[in-house]
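Thread title: Can someone regenerate the structure for this chain?

I was given the following input by a collaborator and told the matching structure tokens would be attached. They weren't. Posting the sequence so someone can regenerate them.
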Amino acid sequence: MSKQLAESFRRAAQEHLHDHAAAAPAEAKVLGGVRDLSLPDLLRLHGEASAAVLLLLMAVLSVMPLAGVGTLLSFVIFALAWRWSTALDERIVPERLSRVRLNAQWSRRCLKFLAWMYGLSDRLMKARWHWASHRRTHKGWRLWIALMGLLILLPVPFGNVLPSISLVLLSLGWMFRDGLALLAAAVVGSGAFAFALMMGHVLVDVAQRGLAFLTRWTGLELGALF
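Best answer:
Regenerated them for you:
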């Protein structure tokens, strides 16, 4: 399956590049989609819209410069955490998010990344360690997905990168029943949690130092205001 997905996205990226260079915007086509890709276009390229696929796309999109949709992405991740391991309900995706489109450059980058990711998955992933995706673990993975969604939502510099990688690994591990990938998702997510705590401590320390400097400069007890 991963080899077919890699080939589909590789072909889509090539067609996207060709159409971007040779066709007018109204004429450009991308494997049944359009030049500026949307979430429904990416789901259509997968051929099957499962919860794992949607979570993977949410994780990938969360590290892209999509102004104003960060909260919506986190909302969908929270909804997927609640409905994890059950049938996908398309109403989970807000209509506003479905209308968001990547520009030509980021569409091409997204297609290339997905092609590379599925190609790598085909070489490295296989069904193993099934206990990691056993039914008894589903509640734990739901909580984990919600926690990663919360870290993505927090306004921490670069704080969305590691949680997104964790969710990508979790999605791939679930899709290919690879318990090793699921455990890797837990390790990367633990690093994301530690990074968020560290950055939070740094931000608090910077804020305290700034407040102390302003107090000395103005002669006012600004700390009493907080």
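Residues 97 and 196 are 26 Å apart (CA to CA).
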